[in-house]
Design a protein that fits this description.
Elements (H helix, E strand, L loop, with lengths): L6 H40 L2 H29 L1 H4 L2 H35 L1 H4 L1 H30 L4 E3 L5 E3 L2 H5 L4 H30 L4 H35 L1 H8 L11 E8 L4 E8 L2 H7 L20 H30 L7 H9 L3 H16 L3 E3 L3 E2 L9 H31 L2 H9 L8 H15 L1
Antiparallel strand pairs: 1-2, 3-4, 5-6
Helix pairs in contact: 1-2, 1-6, 1-8, 1-14, 1-15, 2-9, 2-15, 2-16, 2-17, 4-6, 6-8, 8-9, 8-13, 8-14, 9-10, 9-12, 10-12, 12-14, 16-17
Length: 470
């Protein structure tokens, strides 16, 4: 199946494959945990049963997504030892403690309070249950903080020394954790997680509004999602712009590849909207561009010079075609999200937010857009770092374990089969859960037997029964 591929190519593909599966679940659970905390807080403040209904609905979906994220993350981490042992040996004194801190602080925090959030409302009371829900939300954000600190250090390494055996050893932990690109990546990723969740919640709300536009819970979740979209998308665009300027300062070759600038532009660089990268001829074929706009965006000056990949040695040049395309996918989806948010705001002002089937169809179609944008962003970031694992210091080709290509191919084949079976089934189950009307989930909860049944869940179902009678 993978005949003719080197061990390095197969190992890189295996890591890309596993991280692509893994990243979509934390991106969803980070935003969903915060959404659950907001719903629970609104329920405690207003005692509006709609918020409790939605909390009960989405907490089950969160539990499944959280579990899938944990499983995919554990499997992915083993590759540091099996496929990338040289990298682990050299960079381990820096990245090892950071990843351990993520487990010891964030993951244990999430896992310790997750059970209370899911099952403990009637056992511990509303206040402690709210505290547990807030801790789980905080834990997901803390987990993202540590992981992004690790990744950002690999992109912009500082605060280290190299010992006599060639290992990176920490000299300044504050500089390592809060490295130059870390704040920009953290903000960009957290906002991406919130947008991903908003699009999923909006899609589910839109689906049920298409079936019953008078459903009160579907109205509420759709409204909240559209508010999140119109508020967070402009912030994300601004954060992305700041992140791009930071990348230009520390990783100029990556920005050159993102922009498709094979050649330097001494009198202002154009913004290439679309085109087909031609790595052999080092140009963008059929380019559609706006003169000097790239210089305005990146340097805030129409005539500012911008260096191109002709200033970068060929052996240090990242794969332009992948980065050029993935960056445009991310940007296009970002503006599509902004367009959906503006459309929803217009309908809200007109008083037709819940009576706009084409808006609901568009929101339903945009449901997966957040996941695709997150994947496109991570591809841009990680491929743009090539040919290095630690930017400018350790080449990917020098980070590989002494392992034969057939061994990597065998494990990669097994990963593909198991991942598609396990996570395919999990994703299918999540979609089925989202397809269920909120009322049905509340009714089922009321009929549960045993110690899990609570008065609060019964009230949720009774609330929906009253609404049905109305």
């Amino acid at each position: 199946m993978f005949d003719g591929f080197t061990a390095e190519v197969l190992a890189r593909f295996q890591f890309a494959f596993t991280i692509s599966f893994h990243i979509i679940f934390p991106a969803f659970s980070i935003g969903l945990a915060s959404y659950l905390a907001v719903l629970n807080a609104l329920w405690l403040r207003t005692r509006n049963e709609t918020y409790k209904v939605l909390f009960e609905y989405w907490k089950n979906i969160f539990a499944v997504a959280f579990a899938m994220g944990v499983v995919s993350g554990i499997v992915m981490s083993y590759q540091f030892g099996t496929n990338w042992s040289v990298f682990s040996d050299k960079a381990g004194p820096v990245i090892g403690p950071l990843m351990a801190y993520e487990v010891l602080s964030a993951f244990f925090l999430e896992a310790g309070f997750l059970g209370i959030m899911l099952f403990g409302r009637e056992r511990v009371g509303d206040k402690l249950h709210m505290f547990a829900t807030g801790v789980v939300a905080f834990g997901t954000l803390l987990s993202a903080t540590w992981i992004l600190s690790v990744n950002s250090w690999m992109q912009t390494p500082v605060g280290y020394a190299i010992n006599e055996v060639g290992q990176f050893v920490p000299e300044d932990w504050w500089a390592i954790v809060f490295n130059p690109s870390f704040p920009y990546r953290l903000v960009h990723m957290v906002l991406a997680a919130y947008l991903t969740t908003a699009l999923v919640v909006g899609a589910v709300g839109a689906l049920h509004l298409l079936l019953d536009r008078y459903d009160i819970a579907s109205r509420k979740m759709f409204s909240m999602a559209m508010w999140m979209l119109i508020v967070v998308t402009p912030l994300q665009i601004l954060a992305g712009d700041s992140h791009g300027l930071n990348t230009l300062e520390h990783q100029p070759a990556k920005v050159m590849a993102m922009e498709g600038h094979y050649d330097s532009h001494p009198n202002g660089a154009p913004l290439i909207l679309f085109g087909i990268p031609n790595p052999e001829e080092k140009r963008i074929d059929y380019a559609i561009e706006i003169p000097k706009l790239s210089s305005l965006i990146l340097k805030h000056d129409l005539n500012a010079p911008l260096a191109g990949l002709d200033t970068i040695p060929d052996e240090d040049e990242p794969p332009v075609a992948i980065i050029f395309c993935s960056f445009r996918v991310m940007i296009a989806l970002g503006f599509a999200m902004l367009g959906l948010g503006i459309w929803a705001l217009t309908q809200r002002v007109r008083g037709r937010l819940y009576d706009a089937p084409w808006l609901h169809r568009a929101a339903l179609a945009m449901g997966p857009a957040g996941f695709v944008a997150v994947l496109a962003g991570w591809i841009t970031t990680e491929v743009g770092r090539q040919p290095f694992t630690v930017y400018g210091l350790i080449r990917t080709s020098d980070s590989l374990s002494p392992i034969a290509a057939p061994a990597v191919a065998a494990s990669l084949t097994a990963f593909i089969i198991v991942y598609f079976f396990v996570f395919g089934a999990g994703t299918y189950y999540l979609l089925r859960m989202m397809n269920k009307p909120v009322k049905e989930v509340a009714d089922n909860a009321m009929h549960k037997e045993g110690p899990i049944r609570t008065a609060g869940v019964t009230q949720v179902a009774q609330y929906y029964a009253r609404k049905k009678g109305d």
